[in-house]
Design brief:
heterodimer; A: alpha/beta; Spore Coat Polysaccharide Biosynthesis Protein SpsA, Chain A; five-stranded mixed sheet; four-stranded mixed sheet; 8 helices; 31% helix; disordered C terminus; B: alpha+beta; two-stranded antiparallel sheet; 5 helices
């Protein structure tokens, strides 16, 4: 039964005093009320921590953690370690959850006994005054793509694989999903926008031009871990039987 | 006139590190791996070498009989074309092949049959990846 399940939402944040409260508010506004929001400040240099404490100091469903700067994966992993929820999901500090997102994802899990986790689409919204990233200019179809960090997953499954790989500079969210699936997680998708990903002009997503190398790096690591293989073709030479 | 080839981009992206070539099909989510002489041959082909050029390069690099290599390269190229990783290039390359760069990519070693291993276990996950930088030719959409 997922209806009353406590869901932990981990929000890593770094220098986002201007928008992080919106992200937290969107979590607190969820139609699924059994929520805890773990905001992990990754050593912000601006007023992020002060803003969070001022806005949510009296809110029992929000816990704020302050850490030395160690990167987004380390921040998320800290949130994973602190989570008390049966289920876990993530939200970037400049993003917003659609108010029925958690309810929708839990209902999907409840309706499909053969899946363990579900992720959804996110809509990229370019905020006023911000330049449109080059990849979005070339491919407007990507404005509503699936977001790996929208995954709603049993907390235990994420802990079992050790959380995020803190050695990865990019592709760490894709890597998490790859390792979860390789460990047997049954993943499904909801073809619906349940996250609004806001582009302000200083997001990490502007640097996404390097994504192919990140993608290849994650797959290369997967191959090196010698996971079960798919179709084998021509392994013993061109004259060998295929398949 | 010898046939020259190129990697079938932007659908396929590839990278060779420590003598292993990893090639990803961004349309279907499958990926391919080849090592050693196979990775060497792959990089030579995608740099514009013809099949006969590759025979000569591989035979010299791995100190192996050219007749044997010729048979292997023929099958390897046919297979790569069949899998759509390689397509014919309309012209020979503008620049001569940089042999030293090719040698630096893939260390020499024992010669083995030219093969590429195909994997489909991550297809669904790869196809979920939200952001891909592509050329002005645009993103290949799922079939």
């Amino acid at each position: 039964m997922t209806g009353a399940a406590l869901v932990s939402v981990v929000i890593p944040v770094y220098d986002r005093a201007h928008c992080v409260t919106d992200a937290v508010d969107s979590v607190l506004a969820q139609t699924h009320h059994e929520i805890e929001c773990l905001v992990v400040d990754d050593g912000s240099r601006d007023d992020t921590l002060a803003v969070l404490h001022a806005a949510f100091g009296g809110e029992s469903r929000v816990r704020v953690f302050a850490r030395d700067h160690a990167g987004v994966s380390a921040a998320r992993n800290h949130g994973i370690a602190q989570a008390e929820g049966e289920y876990l999901t993530f939200l970037d500090s400049d993003d917003l959850m659609v108010e029925h997102r958690i309810e929708r994802q839990l209902a999907h899990l409840s309706d499909h006994a053969d899946i363990d986790a579900v992720l959804c689409r996110g809509e990229h919204v370019v905020m006023s005054g911000a330049p449109t990233p080059p990849w979005l200019q070339r491919n407007p179809d990507l404005s509503q793509a699936y977001h790996h960090t929208s995954i709603l997953v049993p907390t235990a499954r994420v802990r079992a694989i050790g959380g995020f790989d803190e050695q990865l500079a990019i592709g760490e969210d894709f890597d998490l999903v790859v390792r979860l699936v390789a460990a047997g997680l049954r993943l499904d998708t909801i073809d619906e926008v349940l996250v609004r990903s806001r582009i302000f002009g200083d997001n990490v997503t502007y640097g996404i031009d390097d994504d192919f190398s990140g993608l290849l790096d994650v797959v290369r690591r997967h191959v090196a871990r010698d996971q079960p293989r798919g179709e084998r073709v021509g392994r013993d030479g061109p004259d060998a039987p295929h398949g | 006139m010898p046939t020259h080839y190129r990697a079938n981009g932007p659908r396929f992206v590839d990278e060779t590190i420590d003598g292993e070539a990893l090639i990803m099909d961004m349309l279907k989510g499958s990926y391919y791996s080849c090592e050693g002489a196979s990775a060497y041959a792959w990089n030579a082909l995608t740099a514009g070498a013809s099949a006969s050029d590759v025979v000569e390069l591989v035979a010299a690099r791995y100190d192996v009989d050219a007749t044997r290599v010729e048979r292997d390269v023929g099958g390897f190229v046919a297979h790569l074309v069949d899998e759509e990783l390689l397509v014919e290039a309309p012209d020979s390359p503008d620049e001569p092949l940089d042999r030293s760069a090719l040698d630096a990519l893939v260390p020499s070693g024992d010669y083995g049959a030219l093969t590429v291993e195909k994997f489909t276990d991550l297809a669904d996950v790869i196809l979920l990846d939200p952001v891909h930088d592509v050329t002005d030719a645009g993103w290949p959409h799922r079939a």
